[in-house]
Description:
The chain is an alpha/beta fold. The chain folds into 2 domains: 3-217, Spore Coat Polysaccharide Biosynthesis Protein SpsA, Chain A (Alpha-Beta Complex), CATH 3.90.550.10; 226-309. The chain is built from 11 helices and 12 strands. Strands 1, 2, 3, 4, 5, 6, 7, 10, 11 and 12 form a 10-stranded mixed sheet that branches. Strands 8-9 form a two-stranded antiparallel sheet. The longest helix is centred in the C-terminal third of the chain and has 21 residues, at 248-268.
Amino acid sequence: MDISIFITNYNGYKNGYIQEALPNIITEARKYAKGKYEIIFVDDCSLDESIKYVSKNFPEIIIKKTPKNCGYQRASNFAVEHCQYSILISLNNDIKLGDNVLNKIVEYFNDDKVFAVSTKVFLWDEKTYLAGKRIGYIEKGHFKLKDLGDTINKTEMTLFATGGAAAFRKSMYLQLQGFNAIYYPLYWEDIDLCYRALKRGWKVLYAPECIMYHKHQATIKTMYDTKQLSYITARNSYIFFWINITTLNILILHLFWSLTFFIRDIFKLKFRFHIAFCLALTKIFEIIKYRNLEKKQQKKTDVEIFEILN
């Protein structure tokens, strides 16, 4: 089974990430024994010496540059356009691979219903647990995420595969039209992608024996402050909900609790909710377009998905 490893990058050389990550990725790629591989480095118009460094030190890596700085979602989709093999290994520029992870992860794609496989992720110290199996549920009319922690030791369905530390089937990725850029600049695009796959009846698996290491939010924190990230995350959670949740009673609960929170936070003089909600509303016509498209494709309901995951 042939694999395309693609790495999205923005200023990774300046921050010192690719100098540590790329030698590890090369080493693990050379261990791959189940087919051919390629490594594609997609630079999103970095302002540092990233391309020069990769070109000089890693001649086997294919370098592609986006026409303009376009953010994680479009850079990833741009990368996939240049991937020639059937299994995609999607990596951030601050990801290292665990031993033999590539040979392990491709085995799951022998099942033709598998869309994505998510890894167990630790921080770069290789000890501190970061992410594993995720579930989703509705609480007070809002979509909530929960990581079940470092306790799941067998392969199970998961809500989503972490975008920069996962494997995807290329044919399905293209059917879904990749990451949706409505979530620009970041967050919730991988949840959206996998939720749409789940609604089509495809599988998203968590494989705890497949290990990767992540310098969490390393690049992100050089671009946005904590307050900005808070607004982006909240805005995108609403965009995700309005595109993907189609169960009527959940939508009614969402409207009720949104109004409740709106009034409550006015009296508390807290306005994060209002700002995030209004930022999402600015994209309402795009949201309606994508919502109508997804409703035509879904084979499973929200309730069925929650039952499968939980």
